[in-house]
């Protein structure tokens, strides 16, 4: 049963049916010719080489069909469309159709047609569209835009149910009134970019019209009174319609449903005061390119306005309504290219005022002082300040600004000098002589400094001469055409532009002048400009261009080879870096301003399946012959080195990842092929298959199997390749150099209840990406030369089956270039000998076998290397261990997985299998907590947690470690990191032995005074690791030096231990010092007293893991969901919420203690104690 009959939608955009149409024409001519001979090439039984539309006649349930850009020309429409009786939507966009009359009887052939789109074709006359097309009863949408129609199509008024009509971008000069008399249900009408001079008055009958587009029509004498009668109108575009004050409708403001209004593009409106602006729903208003002097005051009533364009008018500042600031929803306000003289007295972030010649920018005032408000801008509009901003330099300080002189102060200084009296003459003479001598000395020093500076500059001019250039031979790199004789090279000796592209880390000359100026953004280039000066001396300018998508190694090589080219020429110029999108004008001028940047890179691997025949071999390419256990790489003598390298890499990937490294790779250069290669090509021999992978069960039953069935015995007894006479040498240059694969097409197989759909997935920049594949879907990929079926791991089995059957039945449509350029020979009028040989009866079988092998199914996770090569981001590198020596490989083998399996450390599972330790009782936990606290040099009192000489808590604030306030001791914030310093008495046995051996006669009290310090670094769950890194590399060393100092005995340093603990992973001894009062808040320590924190509801819960020592009080989100009957909760309600609940003003907050039914009774007393500790300093509160 055919699956295609269940297709409801099919997108065939991008499939070219032009060749198939030419083939049909040839066969039609051959049948009509009476004097055909048996050897006539046109009557040969040509196989289905090009995509054919014959399969469409079996899609009886098809409802929508897209034939966008499929090569339909003149009157050619696929005749199979007439079999689609349920077709509702037909798209013929981007073709070259001149007529639709090839289908007769549209209402009978397509009775369900609802929508026809024939945009961007070559329809010229009204007779090119059949009149019976509009007699389809269900026709609702008609789009004939972007054509060359001069009149309305015949019979268009018969489409009485028409809802949308698009006739824009044509040459229509007259609209018949019958259109609006019959088609009264129109909701969308686009007549823009035509030659209309008037509109029929019957337009007012279309009372349901919502969008009317009349842009760029010569409607100078049209009053458009009928437009004001369209009360349902939401979008009105009158741009470029020569609107003036005398021809704009006065009642235009009565369109209350209007959302978008466009009156822009070279109208002649100078005043809109007659419009009251009664458009409560207007969101878009465009008044640009007019002659407006002032804006109407009614604009301030457009409360929903979001976009306002008034650029390119004659507006002054007085012409802008003062209440325009009331438009709170305004997002875009464009007032550029006007005559504004100043800007509003408010602070703005962005204000575009380009090309306003009389605009006066205020000078920069002094910096804002405290309390100055918004009276000043504090923006420096001067040219120097803007240049400093562009260069990334900081702004000048206001203290460096020179203020004008104060004349009053100068007068006071002169009076003070006169009051002091006239000094002695001798003193004045002496001071004058000293001043002259000092100035003379300064002048001499200045001259010496200038001489030194000039000498240094002269030495710096020839810094290139001081550099030792590498002694390298560049002749084989840049003069690759004549590597043996430099005199024959033309690099840098002919005026003009020469260009090299980076290929395998070496520059390769771009010889074709047409390709110069066409750069690929995935490559890098070196460009040389050679000119001859007036002194008949060569002058060189060297550029290297960097593509935006090029790799780092290519960018580095481009810079290196640009310097190498300079050294090769002996030039003294500097190399210039040019980046894509930021090219200089001098660089663009090298190509006469026609610099074209293409997407992609020339090194992308393109793979096409070819028929298994020697006639498929072309000397410009490389071919990979896959024989399962053997891979043969045929290298053409004219193929590029990059193609040979990519082909070898592909063979390596297939052997390693698909054949478990058991496939052998053979290199077959042209004219030196092996006998086995020709035996496989001619079909007389196949190599031994790959051995099947053995399982454990196979290994156990290995001794039971008879010897005759052993796999190795089969391989040994496999016959060798017979001696084959190589085929006769034929012309192997049949694929044109400019031939390219078509763009890939990715189909998404979609399934519903009783139907299938095959839409296309939109490709970004025409490239395939892994991100497009969804694991729940099934895709059909037409790469241009191969057909793949990709099945996601989460897709259903029925969807996979449907996708596979659908791909098999659509082989007539895809892949499009299934012969890799060989199909071009079939289009010639006089077919070559190669074509006749392929069409011979003896060679027809290869075509059937080849067609069956075009479809390659692959599941997610098991994709073939051929499939992965189709994607731009699926280039996985082979894992190669360059650290292993030959001796290591000989001893331990090649398989790295087996080596890792042997070296895998044994896991100790005894801790998981051992019985769980008995938890401590409450009495034992309290006793242990007391014993650990007694080890401190200053044991704390019971149930009192405060800072002391034995315990100190620090926190990092603004990059500095500060001591935590005493009331916040024992309280931590989960977004901060803390340091807790604990000092203990040192009872270590090593210290005792050291003291006994060293100081036997000393007093034993000296040993008892030894202490040790443990520094705990506590990190909150939401804190970053930056604090830990700063502590580890900056603070730890200094802290260890200070804490280890022993003031009583310098020769015996104290012990210092550092421990890093994370939130809710704390050490038991660490928690014991807080005596069950360990509190963790949310947020930062610096925000502890912020009003935003104190005025919100806070909720804490108390829990202990294992024993009482691990008791923690942790803040959680206040929600009923977080309540648990096994815990006790503390909830603080701020005073302003209490005032609302009690309906009276109060300054007390409420603190609730919620006790779970299964919680411990001791937690209630602990909760009360913690509540007083946390909230007593905030406000007074009753405990509820």
TrEMBL record:
CDD domains: gelsolin_like (cd11280). PROSITE patterns: LRR (PS51450). One of its GO terms (biological process) is barbed-end actin filament capping. One of its GO terms (cellular component) is nucleus. InterPro entries: ADF-H/Gelsolin-like_dom_sf (IPR029006), Gelsolin-like_dom (IPR007123), Leu-rich_rpt (IPR001611), Leu-rich_rpt_typical-subtyp (IPR003591), LRR_dom_sf (IPR032675), Villin/Gelsolin (IPR007122). One of its GO terms (molecular function) is actin filament binding. Gene3D superfamilies: Ribonuclease Inhibitor (3.80.10.10), Severin (3.40.20.10). SMART domains: GEL, LRR_BAC, LRR_SD22, LRR_TYP. It comes from the Eukaryota. It holds the Pfam family Gelsolin. This is Uncharacterized protein. The lineage of its organism: Eukaryota, Metazoa, Spiralia, Lophotrochozoa, Platyhelminthes.
């Amino acid at each position: 049963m055919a699956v295609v009959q269940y297709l409801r939608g099919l997108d065939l955009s991008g499939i070219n049916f032009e060749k198939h149409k030419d083939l049909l024409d040839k066969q039609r001519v051959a049948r009509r010719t009476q004097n055909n001979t048996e050897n006539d090439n046109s009557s040969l039984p040509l196989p289905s080489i090009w995509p054919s539309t014959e399969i469409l006649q079996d899609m009886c349930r098809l409802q929508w069909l897209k034939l966008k850009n499929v090569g339909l020309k003149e009157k050619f429409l696929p005749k199979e469309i007439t079999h689609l009786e349920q077709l509702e939507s037909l798209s013929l966009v981007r073709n070259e159709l001149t007529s639709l009359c090839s289908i007769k009887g549209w209402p009978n052939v397509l009775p369900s047609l609802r929508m026809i789109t024939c945009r961007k074709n070559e329809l010229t006359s009204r007779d090119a569209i059949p009149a019976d097309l509009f007699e389809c009863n269900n026709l609702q949408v008609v789009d004939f835009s972007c054509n060359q129609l001069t009149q309305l199509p015949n019979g268009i008024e018969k489409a009485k149910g028409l809802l949308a009509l698009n006739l824009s971008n044509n040459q229509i000069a007259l609209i018949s009134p019958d259109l609006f008399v019959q088609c009264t249900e129109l909701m969308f009408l686009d007549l823009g970019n035509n030659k209309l001079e008037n509109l029929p008055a019957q337009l007012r009958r279309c009372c349901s019209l919502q969008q009317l587009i009349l842009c760029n029509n010569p409607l100078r004498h049209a009053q458009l009174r009928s437009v004001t009668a369209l009360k349902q109108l939401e979008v009105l575009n009158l741009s470029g319609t020569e609107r003036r004050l005398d021809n704009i409708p006065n009642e235009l403001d009565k369109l209350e449903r209007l959302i978008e209004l466009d009156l822009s593009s070279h109208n002649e409106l100078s005043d809109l005061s007659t419009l009251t602006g009664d458009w409560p729903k207007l969101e878009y208003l465009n008044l640009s390119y007019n002659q407006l002097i002032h804006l109407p005051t009614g604009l301030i009533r457009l409360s929903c306005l979001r976009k306002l364009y008034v650029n390119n008018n004659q507006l002054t500042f007085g012409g802008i309504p003062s209440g325009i600031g009331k438009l709170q929803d305004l997002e875009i306000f464009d007032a550029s290219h006007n005559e504004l003289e100043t800007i509003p007295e408010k602070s703005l972030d962005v204000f575009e005022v380009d090309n306003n010649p009389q605009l006066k920018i205020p000078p920069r005032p002094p910096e804002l002082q405290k309390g100055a408000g918004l009276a000043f801008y504090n923006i420096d509009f001067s040219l120097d300040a803007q240049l400093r901003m562009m260069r990334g330099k900081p702004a000048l300080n206001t203290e460096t600004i020179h203020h004008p002189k104060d004349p009053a102060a100068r007068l006071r200084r002169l009076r003070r000098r006169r009051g002091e009296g006239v000094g002695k003459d001798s003193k004045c003479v002496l001071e004058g002589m000293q001043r002259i001598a000092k100035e003379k000395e300064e002048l001499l020093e200045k001259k010496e400094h200038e001489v030194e500076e000039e000498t240094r500059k002269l030495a710096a001019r020839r810094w290139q001469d001081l550099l030792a250039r590498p002694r390298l031979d560049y002749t084989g790199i840049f003069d690759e055409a004549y590597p043996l004789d430099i005199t024959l090279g033309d690099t840098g000796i002919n005026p003009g532009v020469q260009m090299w592209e980076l290929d395998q880390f070496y520059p390769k000359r771009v010889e074709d002048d047409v390709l110069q100026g066409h750069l690929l953004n995935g490559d890098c280039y070196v460009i040389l400009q050679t000119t001859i000066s007036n002194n008949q001396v060569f002058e060189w300018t060297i550029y290297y261009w960097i593509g935006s998508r090029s790799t780092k190694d290519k960018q580095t090589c481009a810079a290196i080879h640009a310097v190498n080219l300079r050294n090769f020429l002996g030039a003294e110029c500097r190399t210039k870096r040019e980046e894509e999108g930021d090219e200089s004008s001098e660089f663009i001028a090298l190509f006469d301003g026609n610099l074209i940047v293409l997407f992609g890179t020339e090194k992308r691997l393109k793979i096409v399946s070819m028929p298994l025949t020697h006639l498929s071999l072309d000397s410009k390419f490389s071919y990979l012959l896959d024989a399962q256990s053997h891979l043969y790489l045929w290298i053409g003598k004219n193929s590029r080195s990059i193609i040979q390298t990519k082909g070898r890499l592909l063979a390596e990937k297939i052997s390693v990842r698909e054949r478990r490294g058991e496939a052998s790779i053979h290199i077959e250069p042209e004219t030196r092929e092996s006998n086995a290669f020709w035996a496989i090509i001619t079909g007389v021999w196949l190599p031994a298959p790959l051995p099947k992978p053995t399982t454990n069960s196979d290994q156990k039953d290995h001794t039971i199997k008879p010897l005759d069935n052993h796999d190795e015995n089969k391989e040994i007894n496999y016959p060798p390749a017979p001696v084959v006479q190589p085929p006769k040498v034929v012309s192997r240059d049949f694929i044109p150099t400019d031939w390219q694969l078509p763009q890939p097409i990715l189909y998404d197989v979609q399934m519903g209840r009783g139907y299938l759909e095959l839409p296309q997935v939109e490709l970004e920049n025409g490239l395939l990406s892994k991100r497009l594949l969804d694991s729940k879907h099934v895709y059909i990929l037409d790469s241009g030369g191969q057909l793949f079926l990709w099945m996601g791991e989460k897709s259903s089995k029925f969807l996979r089956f449907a996708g596979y059957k659908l791909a098999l039945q659509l082989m007539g449509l895809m892949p499009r270039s299934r012969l890799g350029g060989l199909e071009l020979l079939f289009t010639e009028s006089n077919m070559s000998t190669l074509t006749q040989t392929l069409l011979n009866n003896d060679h027809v079988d290869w075509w059937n076998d080849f067609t069956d092998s075009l479809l390659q199914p692959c599941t997610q996770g098991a994709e073939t290397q051929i499939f992965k090569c189709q994607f731009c981001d699926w280039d996985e590198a082979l894992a190669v261990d360059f650290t292993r020596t030959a001796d290591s490989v000989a001893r331990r083998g090649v398989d790295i997985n087996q080596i890792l399996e042997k070296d895998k450390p044994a896991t100790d599972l005894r801790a998981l299998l051992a019985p769980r330790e008995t938890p401590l009782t409450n009495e034992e936990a309290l006793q242990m907590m007391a014993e650990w606290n007694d080890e401190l040099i200053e044991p704390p009192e019971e149930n009192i947690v405060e800072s002391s000489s034995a315990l100190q808590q620090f926190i990092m604030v603004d990059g500095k470690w500060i001591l935590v306030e005493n009331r916040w001791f024992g309280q931590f914030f989960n977004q901060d990191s803390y340091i807790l310093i604990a000092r203990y008495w040192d009872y270590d046995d090593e210290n005792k032995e050291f003291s006994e051996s060293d100081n036997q006669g000393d007093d034993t009290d000296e040993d008892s005074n030894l202490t040790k310090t443990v520094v705990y670094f506590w990190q909150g769950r939401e804190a970053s690791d930056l604090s830990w890194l700063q502590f580890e590399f900056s603070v730890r060393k200094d802290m260890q030096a200070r804490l280890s100092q022993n003031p009583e005995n310098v020769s015996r340093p104290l012990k210092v231990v550092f421990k890093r603990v994370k939130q809710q992973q704390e050490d038991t001894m660490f928690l014991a010092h807080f005596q069950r009062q360990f509190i963790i808040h949310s947020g930062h320590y610096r925000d502890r007293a912020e009003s935003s924190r104190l005025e919100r509801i806070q909720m804490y819960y108390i829990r202990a893991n294992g024993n009482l020592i691990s008791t923690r009080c942790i803040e959680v989100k206040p929600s009923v969901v977080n309540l648990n009957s096994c815990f006790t909760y503390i909830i603080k309600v701020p005073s302003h919420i209490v005032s609302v609940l009690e309906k009276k003003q109060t300054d007390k907050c409420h603190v609730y203690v919620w006790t779970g039914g299964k919680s411990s009774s001791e937690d209630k007393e602990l909760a009360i104690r913690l509540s007083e500790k946390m909230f007593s300093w905030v406000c007074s509160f009753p405990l509820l």
